[in-house]
Amino acid sequence: MLKQDKKPSFLENVNMMVNDTLNHIDIDPNIAKILKTCRSVLQVKFPIKLKGEIKIFHGWRAVHSNHRLPAKGGLRFATNVNQEEIEALASLMTFKCAVVDVPFGGAKGGLLIDPQKYDEESMEKITKKFARELIRRGYLSPARDVPAPDVGTSQREMGWILDAYKSLRPDDINHMACVTGKSVDHGGIKGRLEATGRGVCEALKEFFRHPEEVQRAGVNKELSDQNIIIQGFGNVGFNSAKALFQNGAKIIGIAEKDGGIFNDKGIDIKELEKYQLENNTILNFPTTKTIKNSADLLSYDCDILIPAALENVVSLDNADSIKAKIICEAANGPITYRADQRLREKGKVIIPDIYANAGGVTVSYFEWIRNISHIRMGRLNKRYEEHRGEAIFKAIEQISPNKLPKDMINQLVYGANEEDIISSGLEDTMRVAFQEILEMREKYNLNNYRLATYAIALKKIEKSYLELGI
């Protein structure tokens, strides 16, 4: 048992959540040992000559589980990366994939670096060297281990990694699938950049489709009735805000590293996007109040709080001050284990990260499928759907004297393109997963979503190990 005065690490928090779930469901004790063990961790230290000076970089790649292949997980470039954090994130990836039925194992990678200190040419050299270290050791390939963007990385880095892989494995016909989160011009897929944030929105939309769950949370009936505060305005936070705003939700506060903004009447996210592009900050946005200490926004009065930045931002230190009735975890592990317990004691509803944050890996899966199959989604059926719609339209015209409205005609003769298919697949994934969470909660008489979500993941992985072998 951890002493009360010692703050658990990120990995310890994850393991305590796993242990908590194991105490509520029946899992083979031998499988339980595996579930808390990271299968392999690669540490690399590699030199690079930059501007005439040799620098040594430290990186890691952890594979928590390879019960399904490839293993999947982002690459993080940050100054606070360490092995324990990477192992914790790898385990969350395993559970996340299981929850949303994405047939991948869990992995994560990190490079100890401050990307802001290097120019683009240097970052390309560093990224490609790190990629080659992983490739040569079997920790990066379309079949075994597929990275994606994370904190400090983007489509740019994924493109460099793809180039490094292709140069080392020119005979691999599936080289495009060695990473996901690429630009559309280089094998990426429309919607991947926004996927995690849109997944958060889809998770909340599905929650509000269940009146009994909404009533239990003590909030108004519709998502559009909620006041929302978002902590973090990077890729996940921004795209969560954008998707929620498009669905009529009211964003009243946004917290960033250097401060926050607040307006109880709502923030126009479209205008904020333009403002940020022009000013490289969200602070001093017109019609909003600037908050100097962004952490204060976590305790402002709101209906939904969305932590969308880094892990452990909600701890015992600030849990009692949180007024939100619903907390939707858009980031990985934003709430510590003890804070999670405290918040639940206070009646807060927590939509856990391994469900709410799964939009990114879901659309990464679609991108990987596209790269492996070598065909654009919708290419085989788009025109068929259009012709079928035209036939239905003509049949209606023949049997009815009434003219159909133009917008209805357009809907009838429309064939789904790749972006439509991706959007539909993401929505379906998040809806089905939440319904499974409710079923699991009822089956084991669990009292919160986190236990039910972890239970789904652990039972699916247990089944895989027991039936296919360890």
Explain how this protein is built.
By secondary structure, this protein is of the alpha/beta class. Among the domains are: 39-186, Rossmann fold (3-Layer(aba) Sandwich), CATH 3.40.50; 195-359, NAD(P)-binding Rossmann-like Domain (Rossmann fold, 3-Layer(aba) Sandwich), CATH 3.40.50. It is built from 16 helices and 13 strands. It has helices at 10-22, 29-35, 83-99, 120-136, 155-168, 195-207, 211-217, 235-246, 269-279, 337-345, 353-356, 359-373, 382-399, 406-412, 418-443, 449-468; strands at residues 40-50, 53-65, 71-72, 75-78, 105-112, 145-146, 227-231, 250-256, 259-262, 289-291, 304-307, 326-328, 349-351. The strands form two sheets. Strands 10-9-8-7-11-12-13 form a seven-stranded mixed beta sheet, sandwiched between helices. Strands 1, 2, 3, 4, 5 and 6 form a six-stranded mixed beta sheet that branches. Strand 12 (326-328), helix 10 (337-345) and strand 13 form a beta-alpha-beta unit. Helix 3 (83-99) crosses helix 16, helix 4 packs across helix 5 (155-168) and helix 15 (418-443) crosses helix 16. The longest helix has 26 residues, at 418-443. The radius of gyration is 23 Å and the shape is globular. 47% of the residues are buried.
